[in-house]
Amino acid sequence: MAINQKQLIKDTALIAICAAVLLVQQMAFSFLPNVQLTTLLVVIYAKVLGFKRTSLIVIIHVLAYNILSPFGAVTPIHLPSMFIGWMLIPISLRTFLKKVESPMGLATFGLIFGFVYGWVYIPAQVFFIGSPLIPYLMMDIPFEIVMGITNFLTIYWLYLPLKKAFAEQLDKFEQKEKIDGR
Amino acid sequence: MQNVLWLKKPIMKFIISLGVVLLGIVVIRLISENHRAEADGTIHLTIIDIEGQTVFDEDIPFYQGDSFYDVLDRTFDLTCATATYQQDDTCAYTFNSFAYQGKVILGIKGNDFELLSDWSTTFLSFYIYDGSDYRLSTFGPSNIPFQQGDQFMIRHDEVGE
Q1: Which of A135, A146, A149 sits opposite B138 (nearest CB)?
Q2: CA distances from B95 to B17, B74, B102, B104 (A)
Q3: Structural domain tally of chain B?
Q4: What pTM does this model have?
């Protein structure tokens, strides 16, 4: 089998597993509004796997979550907002936050992202659903704060150990591939 | 010395984390202020049934310290939701999560009318008059801000209308 095909199969499996982990944890936490490990995991994926593979994971996650969510699908109008929201992480970490590696720096990004993620839903909510802008903004603030704090705490405490464990597993997998390929 | 540094790092992390959590709680508390009447007065209330007919259109009194729910409770017989959104005439249950606080009203009974929603196919929506039009309230009945002369409308609506 050509090396490229092998790499492709390996990437496909890896992306599927990462998307599954993302989906399962989000469903497990879905009874707590805006408490999740999704931001932490997407940050780790973006840092370890890179932009392309993380983007594919996000696409699968958004589609799968909306199909399988026990609370019912998000309205189609909100799907683009959800996709754009989660894509902001790999885009930010690929561009203006490319050099940020410290847990504190990334946790601060997570804190701000909690608010930005809420604001991404505003155009659909205001222009298509017809919600009044200012009351909607005000009512969303507690949820944004909860998401921001969750992001901050999980990234601050878990980013380094999880990234290390994930990178080690990935290295082992790469090494095994090399040995098997000889 | 190294031992001390090893100890300091988690302690600093813990203090920073605690600070962020406390700041969040303070901000949420500040923006979730309790709206209660500062003096006695009256508000104007219009109630519209599921057919679109006006069944109540009068001024009702409130007293210092009242919430909007207290005003309704004093004037009408209310049916509230339990934690599982079942009808409860005693209105004993109060929602108390960080984002959903107060009573959920499922029914209002006056002298010559009764509106009763089941929460799944019909519900009561609360509107506040802003000087030009009635706007859907973003606060629940326990926390709707009001003052002398304000106008409100309660509609019995079908879900998806």
Answers
A1: A135
A2: 28, 20, 5, 8
A3: 2
A4: 0.76
**A142 contacts on B by Cβ (under 8 Å):** 28, 31-32, 98-99
Q: Which of chain B's residues have a Cβ under 8 Å away from the Cβ of A111?
A: 20
- Identify the residue whose tokens are 């209330």: B45
CB A56 within 8 A of CB A42: no
pLDDT at res. A131: 72
What domains can you pick out in chain A, each with its CATH number?
Answer: 3-180 (1.10.1760.20)
Residue B119, phi-psi category: left (phi > 0), alpha (psi -120 to 50), beta (remainder):
left
B33-80 pLDDT, tens digit per residue, is 778 899 999 999 999 999 999 999 999 999 999 999 999 999 999 999
A74-112: per-residue pLDDT in tens? Answer: 667 888 999 999 999 999 999 999 999 999 999 999 999
pLDDT band at A72 (very low <50, low <70, confident <90, very high): low
- B66 in the same domain as B12: no
Together in a domain, B13 and B76: no
Q: Are residues B2 and B70 in the same domain?
A: no
Q: Which of A104, A138, A149 sits opposite B24 (nearest CB)?
A: A149
Q: Is the Cβ of A138 closer than 8 Å to some Cβ of chain B?
A: yes
Q: What's the CATH number where B112 sits?
A: 2.170.130.30
Whether residues B28 and B46 share a domain: the answer is no
Structural domain for B4, as ranges: 1-32
State whether B54 and B86 are in the same domain: yes
Do B83 and B147 fall into the same domain? yes
Calpha distance B9→B5 (Å, rounded): 6
Q: How many CB atoms lie within 10 A of CB A9?
A: 11
Q: In a 10 Å sphere around its CB, with 0-12 CB exposed, 13-18 middle and 19+ buried, how is residue A142 labelled?
A: buried
